[in-house]
Write a structure and sequence with these properties.
The complex is a heterodimer. By secondary structure, chain A is α+β, with helices and mostly antiparallel strands. In chain A, about 35% of the residues lie in helices and about 20% in strands. Classes of the chains: A alpha+beta, B alpha/beta.
């Protein structure tokens, strides 16, 4: 074997040995970067316990997702959830379930990474739902898609709570012009009165206030 | 705030049923005739949504809603100009005017109508929906509801739940219209136009809803004129030709509906008080 070849083989062997030594560290770096790419919402979910209150009882709730048969319609699905007797906590639990317990991705109405940051219920039946930024950035653009997103929230609240009269949607605590470029979020959405499938104490009465 | 352009004398465009329209896809020929003189002087503002850095919905092959709707608007312009209507586009190229700039374009005109064109991210491919504005506090979600023991489909933000907003007094020449609620005075006319358009779309795009949908579409809120949005489904196609093929039927549907629309003319000057 010529001398030059011997040198080349030796250099390659040294390089291969060095690569073997550094490979585990490289792998660790890649996995570390992957973890860093997790969204804020995923990180939040990892540390925040599920919403629960002392009055939680298992109940059958009606949640509204896209119909499995038609992507331009909603259909109710009965899901067993631990729901609070406190309407404000109950609403939080319902909206969180609407995001997290979707039966299939094709039936999803709200982006997976969306978080309900806060939910307030005023004595006059006005509800304010504050969502994370991803509601605006990850909801598929389009009138139909945005309409389905809002309607799934409104109908889910209406089906399981009778204390909410109207709903205001905020994004990161701010009034948003639109949901994802089309649907107007500047005003309130009326939550139509419906008889909830199962009522817990304190969640069955609508307020008499009409404005 | 903008000055109210109040009109009170509806003029039927029914005579336009005989119009200069190309044959429909099913081969039905429409007799060609000159449209009556009343048509000229009317303006249709076509609004291809999005533009610029805002692509709108994106298809699996990178197809952008902003490009597709611009093609739709150009096709509709040809159909409408054949009716001797003045047609304006809110953008002629890849610009992205704001909601208010688009609104200002139509609010500065008399006897104009506004049609915003969209393509959805998903939904049944080959269908079309027409929307007219409903103020959110009046929305009652009838729901596009299936299941729950019912087989009927009810429109989300049902038109039946829309507010029955009375038009302002015909002679309120000096009244002002709040910009953020400019659509309030035109809701009835918008609903009429939406009904006509959805009927025409239903004939051409099978599987489309029979009725238009009342929904708070932001762009429409600040339009002080009859205003609707049309959204075709969907950008989620691998073959762009499927959307291209929708352009001509869409243009025909818009042309026919606009021709049938009972368009209000401004009140005669003699009937207004203090006319000097």
């Amino acid at each position: 074997m010529p001398r030059l070849w011997k040198i080349a083989v030796a250099v390659l062997a040294v390089l291969a040995f060095a690569a073997l030594l550094t490979f585990p560290a490289l792998l660790r770096s890649v996995f570390g970067l992957r973890r860093a790419n997790r969204t804020d919402e995923q990180a939040r979910r990892a540390i925040v316990p599920p919403i629960s209150t002392p009055t939680d009882t298992p109940e059958k709730a009606q949640l509204f997702w896209l119909s499995a048969a038609s992507s331009d319609a909603l259909e109710p699905t009965t899901v067993e959830l631990d729901l609070s007797a406190d309407p404000q906590e109950r609403a939080k639990q319902l909206i969180t379930a609407l995001i997290e317990k979707v039966p299939s991705q094709t039936q999803r109405t709200l982006p997976a990474d969306t978080a309900l940051l806060q939910f307030y219920l005023l004595p006059n039946g006005t509800a304010i739902a504050d969502f994370s930024q991803t509601l605006g950035t990850e909801t598929p653009s389009g009138i139909l898609n945005e309409e389905m997103a809002v309607d799934s929230i409104v109908r889910t609240l209406a089906a399981n709570l009778s204390t909410i009269y109207r709903l205001k949607i905020l994004i990161r605590g701010l009034d948003a012009d639109t949901l994802a470029g089309h649907l107007d979020l500047s005003q309130f959405f009326t939550v139509p009165p419906q008889a909830p499938p199962q009522t817990a104490a304190g969640v069955g009465q609508r307020p008499a206030i009409g404005n | 705030m903008l000055g109210a352009s109040v009109s009170s004398t509806p003029l039927a465009f029914g005579a336009l049923a005989q119009q200069n329209m190309p044959p429909s896809p099913n081969g039905e020929q429409t007799p060609l005739s000159s449209p009556p003189e009343e048509i000229s002087g009317r303006t249709v503002v076509l609004d291809p949504a999005h533009g610029g850095a805002d692509f709108g919905a994106r298809g699996p092959t990178g197809l952008a809603e902003s490009d597709v709707v611009l093609d739709f608007a150009r096709a509709a312009r040809i159909a409408l100009e054949a009716l001797r209507l003045r047609v304006l586009l809110t953008r002629e190229g890849n610009q992205d005017p704001s909601f208010d700039n688009r609104s200002a374009m139509v609010n500065g005109l008399r006897n104009a109508i506004f049609i915003s064109l969209h393509v959805s991210s998903s939904g049944p491919v080959g269908t079309a929906r027409t929307y007219y504005y409903v103020f959110p506090s009046n929305v009652s979600t009838g729901g596009n509801l299936t299941g729950a023991g019912t087989t009927s489909s009810v429109q989300t933000f049902s038109p039946a739940a829309a507010p029955q907003t009375p038009l302002p007094p015909a002679t309120a020449r000096n009244s002002l219209v709040e910009w953020d609620h400019a659509q309030q005075a035109s809701i009835d006319l918008s609903r009429q136009l939406a009904n006509l358009v959805q009927t025409e779309l239903g004939h051409r795009f099978k599987g489309s809803p029979e009725m238009p949908v009342a929904a708070p579409v932001r762009q429409l809120r600040t339009i002080a004129a009859p205003a609707i949005a049309i959204e075709l489904s969907s950008i989620d196609v691998t073959d762009a030709k499927r959307l291209d093929q929708m352009a001509q039927p869409l243009a025909e549907a818009i042309g026919r509906a606009v021709a049938e629309f009972h368009y209000p003319l401004p009140a005669p000057a003699a009937s207004s008080s203090g006319g000097h």
